[in-house]
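Human: If only I could read backbone structure tokens as easily as an amino acid sequence. Underneath my words sits a plain record pairing an amino acid chain with its backbone structure tokens. Take your time, and here it is.
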Amino acid sequence: MRIFFIFAFSLFVCVSCQMAKNEEKDNTIDSLKNINSQLKNGYDDLLSSVNQINEGFSQIVDAENRINTITFNHDNENNANDPTTDIKENLQFILKVLEDNKAKIKSLEEKLADKTLGSEELQKMVDNFKLQLEAKQNEIKDLKKQLEDKNYQIGKMGEQIEQLTIENKDVKEENVRVNTENQRISNENQQVKTENQQVKEENQQIKVENQQVRDENDRVKRDNELKEQIVNNQDAQLNTAYYVFGTKSELKQHKILDNGDILTNQNFDKSYFTKIDIRNTTTIPLYSKYANVLSKHPANAYSLQKDSKGEYTIKILNPSDFWSLTKYLVIRVK
């Protein structure tokens, strides 16, 4: 029985010792878990800081790219945003990100001071961040200098643009004036063209009318010539007469004298007579010393006169009276 109790007590002591060891082990595990959690959180925090710093540098690069793509358009009317304003806004953004990265790098350095978190790779990364930060700060100085130079150039260009704008306005006004004048001249030319067309049509009409007048004049001229010819013919007929002198036998032979009468035979020989114009012929030589006027004429309208040879010549004293009774003069000679 005593042995049982000793055994039981020994067993109890062993169990108690084992339980104590197990409890101590559990406490160690919990402590290690806490340390591991803290380390994990610390590394996560470091990684987050690294990522944020990298993101900041990426944003700076993007901002620098935006600055490099900004163009200066001389035509302000077509430029919605002032390029200088865009550059300043991007520079301010870069400066802000640089300050944020500077603070984050400093914080990262402080965290790396803890030997439990520090590592050679992380320290190299921080050193690289510091170099990038310094390089970006130098780049910003250069950008500021470039911006100042561009501001000066923009100011000069602004003056030139203002002068060009004034000149362009003057040119536009001159163009408007020239266009107005050209339009006026075009209208006047069109008016002149229309008037010329009207004049051309009127001239054509006048030409037609003139042709009609010429045709009418030609017709009138022809009519007048015809009338004149008729009048002349009539006048010639009125002033035309015929005379003949011959012996009795000659007159009978040409059937001018028939049974003591003259011109009774319609078949008398008219070709034997001489045709004269009574206005021009007033003297007719008879070449005979005997002359007897057989045709009827007013006695006071003529006279028979002898020349130095004793030969007769009939002298017509009044042609209109002489030829009033007949246009045929018949004289018998020997």
About this structure: The chain has a mean pLDDT of 81. The CA atoms of residues 71 and 83 lie 7 Å apart.
